[in-house]
Amino acid sequence: MKMLKVTVECKNVRSEKVAKYLSKLTDGFKLWMHDNVVYALFDLSSLLELRELGKRLKRIRSIDFRFIKIRAVANPFKNA
């Protein structure tokens, strides 16, 4: 089974708000800031989840975000 490894860049938003939305869609993520820009790295199981995250982020007023990298990777926790 394939998973998506995604990196997103968010401007004009607090890191706490990005973490709130990510915690609803994924179990774990890495979050960091550089020059007042919030970056997040996380795994999702489908494009539908990625689309849902995009919809949720668009609801945040004055946010500017983009998906920097989206890679399909093999799931290391695949059931044998």
What does this entry look like structurally?
It is globular, with a radius of gyration of 13 Å. The chain has 80 residues and is α+β, with helices and mostly antiparallel strands. The protein has a single domain, classed as Alpha-Beta Plaits (2-Layer Sandwich), CATH 3.30.70. It is built from 2 helices and 4 strands, in the order βαββαβ. The mean pLDDT is 90.
Topology:
Blueprint: E1 2-11, H1 15-25, E2 29-34, E3 37-44, H2 47-58, E4 64-74
Antiparallel strand pairs: 1-3, 1-4, 2-3
What keyword list fits this structure?
single chain, 80 residues, alpha+beta, globular
Radius of gyration: 13 Å
CATH uppermost class: Alpha Beta
Helix percent reads: 25-40%
Number of domains: 1
* SSE order, one letter for each helix or strand: EHEEHE
User: Within the CATH hierarchy, at the fold level, what is the topology?
Assistant: Alpha-Beta Plaits
What is the overall silhouette? globular
**Count of helical regions:** 2
Straight-line distance between termini: 11 Å
Main sheet record: 4 strands, antiparallel
Q: List unreliable stretches of 5+ residues.
A: none
Q: In the CATH hierarchy, what is the superfamily?
A: ACT domain
Number of E strands: 4
* Average pLDDT, all residues: 90
Strand ordering within the main sheet: 2-3-1-4
Strand content: 35-45%
CATH architecture: 2-Layer Sandwich
Going by helix content, strand content and strand pairing, the class is: alpha+beta
